[in-house]
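Interim report to the steering committee. The following record documents the input for DYH5 protein (169 residues).
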Amino acid sequence: TEVTGKLEEAVRIWIKQIRQVLVESEQMRREADDIGPSAELEHWKTRMSSFNSLLDEIKSSRVKKIINILQAARSKTLKQWKELDGNITIAANEAKDNVRYLYTLDKFFGPLAKASPVTMMEHVPSLMNTVCMIYCTSPYYNTSERMTSLLLKITNQMINTCKTYLCEG
C-alpha cells in the first residue's frame, strides 16, 4: 500500500501537468494583427509535435508499468488518468489532422506572399476551393472559429502583399 500510495501521488502529479498542457492548448492565441496563413500551419505543427511527445511519454514502458501496478491495486486515480489519456489522444489526432489539411494550402502561401496582386488573384479560386474542401471534409477544422482564423490570415497575407506591391511600385 505504501508503494501504491507513492505511485498514485506520481500519477496525480502527471494528471495535474497534463491538464495544464490541455488547458494551455485550448487558450486563445495572441497573434499579430497582420499574421499570414503560414503561421497557422506552424502553430499546428508545433502543437502536433508537443502532443506526440506527450503521447510517446504516456505510452512509454515506465508509465505503462506504473499504470499496470495501479490497475492491479484497483486505484481510483486511474479513472482520471484514462480520461486524460483519451483527451491527449484526441488533441494529438486533431493537430495531426489539421497539419495534414493545412499542408494542402501550403502551395498557395508562396504566391500569396510574393506575387503581384494580379498574379495573386489567379490563385484565389483554387485557394478558396481548397479552403472549402478543408471545411467540408476535416473532422476538426470545420468550425467557424477555425475557418474565421484561417480566412483572416489569408486576407492579411493578401493585404500585406498588396501593400508591398504599392510601396515598391
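The chain has one domain: 1-168. The committee is asked to note this result when reviewing the revised timeline.
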